[in-house]
Amino acid sequence: MSAQDSNKVKPLLAQSQRSTTSSEPDNGENNDLDVPKTSLMAVLAIQTVDFVSGSIAYSMLPFLAQYYGASKADVGYLFSTYNIAAVVFMPLFVRIADWVGRVPALVLSVMLCAIGQFVNFLAPDLGWLFLGQALAGMSNGIQAVSNSYLCDVTLSSEARATWFSYQSSIPGFAVAIGPPLGGFFGGISYSFPFLVGGILCLLVLFVAGYYLLEPPAFLRFQLARSLRASLRIGEGGNEEESKVRFAPKNTSFVAWLLLLNGFFGGFVQTGMALMQTLFLVNQLKFEPLQAGCALSPVAFITVFMGLWLIPYVQPRFGLYNTIVLGALCSAVAQGCILTGSDHSALFFIYLWNASNNLVRASGPSILSTHCDPTNRATVFSYLSIGENIGRVLAPIISGHLSMVDIRLPFLCFGVGNFLCFILVSICKIRDSERMQVWVSEFSLTSDLRFTGATTSRRLSTLSVVPHEHCEP
């Protein structure tokens, strides 16, 4: 290896050593984490601010759009612009996360979210609001990259499931405090909540960004790729030959079923968020304030499930059984809303929200076992794309069905939940072997194999050893 090639590898080695050294547990704590707990808390803080700033802004977006002369259809297009931009630009963040790093992708996502909020704040007309929504939608990569980060740094399935359950409580917390803050700051002006959202994004970028460390598993992959490239040059190859593409792990059949399950999950969740309010107002004759108060417990149910109940249930029932139970209860709740009395509908709405949290918190944990650092962000981006497509279709389909009968959309959602139950049951059968924690191990093709330490913590034990089964 030449001195020039060695200089290319040394920064990665130094960064890996810093990350793995700082991730050593203190006093025996955090044995299931590959980074300090502050790094994981920083990721959750970024997601929290993303959801809170979005809920603050979205509570005032219809008012601001109508102030600029937008019709109801234009307001719907504004919301769809966010999801369309998220689907179109998701591959960009996948590329950054899988080939540059998780932290740069997170930082870029938060910056785009802040810019989008500031554009909405300064927007002089409706066209600029569409631009701001598109920029904010580009930041939707936060979710996929955060999922990848949590998978990279949790060393056991129990720890991974626990942190994903914590993450699932964030939307409920955002719904609980976002709209009230939006209404409070909206009293100053319709655009002022967007300024607040942008400032929150910048604050979390500087504060949480200080504690973020690149996952050691991803750094080992980068180091292996750089070592292989340098060794090829040292053997007489050229720069082009050194650009080795490490073939990502193929997405399994079970993973594709789980991604399809994500589409139905996004469709049902968005449709329910829309129709449960319309049902209370149109069928139960609630006033808007009454409907808001009636649905406010949903946020607290989400927080309670994510922080306490789901971490208790998952280790005792297993991830697959938790999802199956949640999907089946969700379908039953939809059927009861469809066929039950008006007065019992509110109880079954609460039951559906609680059951749906079981599905949302456990799905990413199972999906993480079917990917590795070479394709983790890609797989989770597919999940986000599927969910966003479902979110785009849900308001359109449920809106047309509600014109026939206000209860008819709940039949559609119940079918969606039952399909989730079927898909997860198939996944459980196909993936019946006990889930194992992924151990980072990368084949370098030709005559090399790169392996990590057994606990994937100490970079000092990394070795490059002959591998007889690699093809040239």
Structure description:
With about 475 residues, the chain is mostly helical. The protein has two domains: about 30-215, Growth Hormone, Chain: A (Up-down Bundle); about 245-435, Up-down Bundle (Growth Hormone, Chain: A), CATH 1.20.1250. About 75% of the residues lie in helices and about 0% in strands. The protein has 16 helices and three strands. A three-stranded antiparallel beta sheet has the order 1-2-3, with no helix packed on it. Strand 1 (about 440-445) and strand 2 form a beta hairpin. Helix 3 packs parallel to helix 5 (about 125-140) and helix 4 (about 100-120) runs antiparallel to helix 5. It starts with a helix and ends in a 7-residue tail after the last strand. Mean pLDDT is about 75; it is low at about 1-5, about 15-30, about 235-250 and about 435-470.
